[in-house]
Specification:
The chain has a domain of 285 residues. Helix content is 72%, strand content 1%. The chain is built from 17 helices and two strands. A two-stranded antiparallel sheet has the order 1-2. Strand 1 and strand 2 form a beta hairpin. The termini are far apart.
């Protein structure tokens, strides 16, 4: 029964795409991409299953011609390499050099993976982006089911594995990561709902409700904020770029249904006493562990002082091990500690460039404009949540970076080709 449900959800983003490839190698590569993205939901520990496949795909996709780097992507890759170099230099100052260097390597590997994903999506934006969103949506459903199994004690032997401190965490190490991972899946489900007419739209609506309940049960304030921002950005951008009044009305209906659905889910969940107690506690903007000399805000003040006195950084994972009892909970501040002034500044600049580029691409009239809006909206929530949590090892964050860059570059390329259909040796589209 459960396999049938997942199979049905897998088809919501369109028919299987592997048949469109030109060779058996391409078909195998596309299947591996789908599996890698689907496995991005399983991160009990590092290295995760996602790493095994993605490291191979980083090499395979460019070799077989499914991911071609352009000058724009090479520029972004150069920025990530500087961040990586900063991380390795900072690790030399760490008490545990090997542990810090390994963290820096994983950050570098994920950022390189985002570039390869971008090149892959740019190659065939509609087919490849939908393939990835398809897999991501299935991963979100599987993660949600795992969260429910743990939270509602459906399989007692798995409860401890799938929950933490009374909060659902599913196949992740942390409930905060579960909630953040599911936020983009909600956006992808809403995109399907927006594109599907009549009764066929009920399936993605149901999936969105399932994902929303799982986010709720993660009891992550950051994830709640993430999902709310992503939905708001998705709704606004979809509305202002809508080509017909009918689509705008459908978007208004989305807002109304979303509010009603969210209220219904929260009301139903609050009927459970354990949910009600934890919800009341987590709904507060300030927790006991946020304030005081050992709170997260005081920790961030310590981090700022360390940044000012350590231009080369102190090395990844050093702050929580030797200066404060927990992480910084701000990825932009953390990156200055992990990679020094230069690495931290380049990291922030790379994110800012991505957001500016993605916003400009959102307004390009291409057949896959909705995909760009969905990817950009999902990324916006993750970028803003980075101000309250460390996101530099979130696999889905780098997948979203790749989606935004790949779709955006494809949109600029396709628009340029439409304006100048005759092939030219040094055509501008070569550079994007």
């Amino acid at each position: 029964m459960r396999v049938g449900v997942v199979s049905g959800i897998a088809s919501t983003l369109g028919p299987p795409l592997v048949t469109a490839s030109k060779s058996a190698v391409h078909r195998i590569a596309l299947v591996l991409v789908w599996i890698a993205v689907a496995l991005s939901a399983v991160v009990f520990s590092e290295p995760a299953p996602f790493e095994v496949l993605m490291m191979g795909l980083i090499v395979l996709l460019p070799v077989i011609g499914l991911a071609r780097l352009t000058p724009a992507l090479i520029l972004m890759l150069s920025l990530w390499l500087v961040v990586g170099a900063g991380g390795f230099i900072a690790s030399t100052a760490a008490y545990d050099i090997q542990r810090s260097a390994l963290h820096a390597f994983i950050t570098l590997y994920l950022s390189v993976a985002s570039i390869v994903v971008a090149a892959f999506v740019r190659q065939s934006p509609i087919a490849h982006a939908r393939l990835m969103m398809n897999a991501y949506l299935v991963a979100g459903v599987i993660a949600s089911i795992a969260a429910f199994i743990g939270y509602f004690d459906i399989v007692p032997s798995l409860t401890e594995l799938l929950t933490l401190f009374g909060r659902a965490r599913g196949p992740f190490k942390d409930p905060n990561v579960l909630g953040a991972f599911l936020a983009p899946a909600i956006i992808f489900a809403m995109l399907i709902w927006l594109e599907r007419p009549g009764p066929r739209s009920l399936v993605p609506l149901g999936v969105a409700g399932l994902l929303t309940l799982a986010v709720l049960l993660s009891f992550s304030r950051g994830a709640w904020f993430n999902a709310a921002v992503s939905l708001a950005v998705f709704g606004y951008l979809s509305f202002v770029t809508a080509r017909t009044t009918r689509r705008q009305l459908r978007l208004l209906a989305l807002v109304v249904l979303g509010v009603i659905g969210m209220a219904g889910i929260v009301t139903a969940a609050m009927q459970l006493e354990v949910v009600q107690d934890l919800m009341t506690q987590r709904a507060s903007l300030s927790q006991d562990y946020d304030v005081g000399p050992e709170g997260r805000f005081a920790g961030q003040d310590k981090a700022k002082d360390l940044v000012l006195t350590h231009p080369l950084g102190i090395g990844a994972l050093e702050f929580s091990a030797h200066y404060h009892h927990e992480d910084v909970h701000n990825v932009y501040l953390s990156m200055f500690l992990n990679a020094g002034w230069l690495g931290g500044a380049i990291y922030a600049m790379a994110i800012a460039i991505t957001m500016a580029f993605g916003l400009s691409a959102v307004f390009i009239r291409v057949p896959y404009q909705g995909l760009i809006i969905a990817a950009y909206a999902a990324l916006t929530g993750q970028v803003l949540e980075g101000f309250i949590v460390d996101t530099d090892h979130w696999r889905h964050f780098y997948l979203l970076l790749g989606l935004v860059w790949g779709l955006g570059l494809a949109a600029y390329r396709d628009t340029t080709l439409q304006r100048a259909p005759q092939p030219v040796l040094n055509h501008p589209s070569r550079y994007i």
